[in-house]
Design goal:
The complex is a heterodimer of chains A (89) and B (422). By secondary structure, chain A is mainly α. Helices cover 58% and strands 0% of the residues of chain A. In chain A, helix 1 packs across helix 2 and helix 1 packs across helix 4. The radius of gyration of chain A is 12 Å and the shape is globular. The model of chain A has no long low-confidence stretch (mean pLDDT 86). Chain B has helices at 6-21, 26-43, 47-69, 73-94, 118-133, 142-149, 152-155, 163-170, 180-210, 221-255, 273-279, 282-303, 308-326, 331-368, 370-388, 395-406. The longest helix of chain B is centred in the last third of the chain and has 38 residues, at 331-368. The radius of gyration of chain B is 23 Å and the shape is globular. Mean pLDDT of chain B is 85; it is low at 413-422. The chains are: A mainly alpha (89), B mainly alpha (422). Chains A and B meet through helix 2 and helix 3 of A and helix 12 and helix 14 of B.
Chain lengths: 89, 422
C-alpha cells in the first residue's frame, strides 16, 4: 500500500532544499521552523510562494501565518498541502 | 474610566468574582456582553458617534455574511477589495488625517464623531472580512461578532486579537483559571501592570519632561543631560505605559475567561529593528505582516515586478511606514514609520550581506557572539529612542526642537515647548 503523503513529502523536501539553499534538509513530521536554518518570516513567504506555484494551490492569509505559529510543524504543513492538492483534483 | 483606575479594578473584581460561579456558555456571555455595552456607553460622547460606530462595525458583519454566502470567488474578491477601500477612506476621514487638512478643516469631524479604539476596530474588521472571504471563519453570529469588536479589554488599545482566537474563549466550556497558581499569576500580572502604568510610567514621564524645557544647550553638560533624559526616558514611559496597560487587560481578561494574545517580549533587548518589532506591539507586527507585507510581497514576486530581494526591502519599508502612519493622523507618525521602515530594511540588508560573505555559518557565528549582541542591543535601543522623538508631538514642533538643540540655541517660540504625550 502506498503512502499518499510520501510523494508530497519528497516534492516538499526538494522545495525546502531549493528555498533554503541546503541540500541536507530531510523533512520529519516533528520538525518546526526553529529546526531549519534561516526559516524566518521572509523565507516562510518564499516557501509558500514556491509551494503554491509547484502544486498549483493557494493558501489563505490565516493559513500562511498559522503554518509557522506555535504547535505547528512539518507534519501539519504536509497535511495541509495534501488536503489542498486532493481538493484540487 | 481608565484601565488602571480604582473604579475599573473594583468593577473587574466584582465581575471576575461573579463570573467565576456562573455556568459557562450563555449566562457568562450575557454578563460579559453587559460589561462590554456598559463600558462602551461610558466611552461614547454623543449620538452621532454611536451611529457612526454602528455603521462602521455592522458594515463589516454584513459584508462578511455576503461574502460567505457568495460562491463566486471573483465577485467575493472585488467586493472585499471595494469594501476595504471604502472602509479605509472612512477611517482616514474619521481620524482627520493631516494630509486631508486642505479639504477637511481640522476639528470638523471630531466635533461630531469621536470613536474610542477606532484604529484597533479597523484592523479587527479587515482581518475578519478577509478571513471570511478566504473561508477561514466558517460561522459567526452577530452576537459573537459584536462582542469580539467591542470586547472592553481590547477596545482601547488592543491587543489586536484574531476572531478565531477570541471565539475559542468566547465559546469555551472549560472552567476559568482552574488552579490557585493560575489565579495568583493573574493577580500578580495585574499588580505589575498597575505598577508599570501608575508608578514607573509616571516617573519616566516626569523625568523625560525635565529634558523638554526651554533651556536646552547642546554644548553645555546640563543641556546634553537634559536631552538624554528626554531621549531615553520618553521611550521608557511609552514602554511602561503601554506594556503595563497590556498586562492589566491580559490579566483582567483571563480572570473573566477571555484569553488575549501577548503584546510585548522585552523589546529593549532587541538586537535590530526587525527583532524590535518582533517583540514590541507584537499583535500589530503580526497583523501588518499578514495583511500588508505578505500579500504585497507575494503579488510582487509572482508578478515579477523586481528581484525578490529588492522587492522585499521595499515591502518592509512600505509595511513599516503604514504601521507608523496608523499610530496617528499627523505627519510626525509618518516620519516615525519612515525611520522604522529604513531601520528594518537596513537590518535585513545587513543580515543578507553577512550571509553573502560567509554563508549561513557566518550568520550563526554573528548571532552567537556576545560582544556583538551587546553592541547590537545598544545600537537598537538608541535607534528606537531616536525614532520615538517623533512619536508624541507634531512634526513642526519636533523639528524646531531638534534644530534648536543641534544649533545650541535656546528654544524660543512657544510652539516648540514639547510636552510628551500631549
Amino acid at each position: 500500500m502506498t503512502n499518499p503523503t510520501g510523494d508530497i513529502r519528497d516534492q516538499m523536501q526538494t522545495l525546502f532544499r531549493n528555498v533554503f539553499v541546503d541540500d541536507e534538509i530531510v523533512l520529519r513530521d516533528e520538525m518546526t521552523a526553529a529546526d531549519v536554518d534561516g526559516w524566518d518570516s521572509l523565507a516562510h513567504i518564499n516557501l509558500i510562494i514556491a509551494v503554491e506555484k509547484h502544486f498549483q494551490i493557494k493558501f489563505a492569509t490565516a493559513e500562511i501565518s498559522g503554518l509557522k505559529s506555535e504547535g505547528q510543524n512539518i507534519g501539519t504543513f504536509l497535511a495541509l498541502v495534501q488536503k489542498k492538492v486532493s481538493a484540487r483534483k | 474610566m481608565t484601565i488602571a483606575s480604582t473604579e475599573f479594578l473594583l468593577a473587574l473584581m466584582l465581575v471576575a468574582g461573579t463570573i467565576f460561579f456562573l455556568p459557562r456558555g450563555l449566562p457568562r456571555q450575557i454578563l460579559l456582553a453587559c460589561c462590554n455595552a456598559g463600558f462602551l456607553f461610558l466611552c461614547i460622547p454623543n449620538l452621532t458617534s454611536a451611529i457612526a460606530l454602528a455603521v462602521f462595525i455592522l458594515s463589516g458583519f454584513l459584508v462578511g455574511e455576503w461574502t460567505r454566502r457568495n460562491q463566486n470567488p471573483r465577485a467575493r474578491y472585488y467586493l472585499v477589495a471595494a469594501y476595504l477601500i471604502v472602509l479605509l477612506s472612512a477611517f482616514v476621514v474619521l481620524k482627520e488625517y493631516q494630509f486631508l487638512s486642505f479639504i477637511i478643516h481640522p476639528g470638523t469631524i471630531s466635533r461630531w464623531v469621536s470613536i474610542v479604539g477606532l484604529s484597533y476596530m479597523l484592523f479587527r474588521q479587515i482581518h475578519y472580512v478577509v478571513d471570511i472571504s478566504e473561508g477561514q471563519i466558517e460561522c459567526c453570529s452577530l452576537w459573537a461578532y459584536l462582542n469580539y469588536q467591542l470586547d472592553l479589554f481590547a477596545l482601547y488599545a488592543g491587543p489586536i486579537q484574531r476572531f478565531q482566537h477570541f471565539s475559542q474563549s468566547w465559546n469555551s466550556t472549560a472552567p476559568i483559571l482552574l488552579t490557585t497558581h493560575q489565579r495568583l499569576k493573574s493577580f500578580a500580572r495585574l499588580f505589575i501592570g498597575i505598577l508599570k502604568v501608575s508608578l514607573l510610567g509616571v516617573l519616566a514621564l516626569k523625568v523625560s519632561q525635565r529634558g523638554s524645557d526651554e533651556q536646552i544647550y547642546a554644548r553645555s553638560l546640563s543641556g546634553l543631560t537634559k536631552f538624554a533624559l528626554l531621549f531615553y526616558f520618553y521611550p521608557a514611559y511609552i514602554y511602561f505605559n503601554f506594556s503595563g496597560y497590556c498586562d492589566i487587560v491580559i490579566a483582567g481578561a483571563a480572570m473573566v475567561g477571555i484569553e488575549l494574545p501577548e503584546n510585548f517580549n522585552a523589546p529593549y533587548l532587541a538586537r535590530n529593528p526587525i527583532d524590535f518589532w518582533a517583540r514590541w506591539h507584537m499583535t500589530l507586527t503580526h497583523w501588518i505582516r499578514d495583511y500588508v507585507f505578505t500579500p504585497l510581497y507575494k503579488k510582487g514576486v509572482e508578478g515579477g515586478i523586481m528581484r525578490p530581494q529588492r522587492w522585499s526591502y521595499l515591502c518592509f519599508f512600505i509595511a513599516m511606514f503604514l504601521a507608523g502612519f496608523w499610530h496617528g493622523s499627523t505627519w510626525n507618525f509618518a516620519v516615525f514609520g519612515l525611520l522604522h521602515g529604513c531601520g528594518v530594511s537596513v537590518a535585513k540588508m545587513w543580515e543578507e550581506r553577512i550571509i553573502r560573505r560567509g554563508g549561513r555559518p557566518a550568520l550563526r557565528n554573528y548571532l552567537k557572539s556576545k560582544p556583538i549582541r551587546v553592541i547590537a542591543i545598544v545600537a537598537t535601543v538608541n535607534f528606537v529612542c531616536f525614532t520615538m522623538l517623533f512619536f508624541p508631538t507634531d512634526l513642526t514642533s519636533r523639528l524646531h526642537f531638534l534644530r534648536s538643540f543641534l544649533l545650541a540655541k535656546p528654544v524660543t517660540s512657544s510652539a516648540s515647548v514639547f510636552v510628551p504625550g500631549a
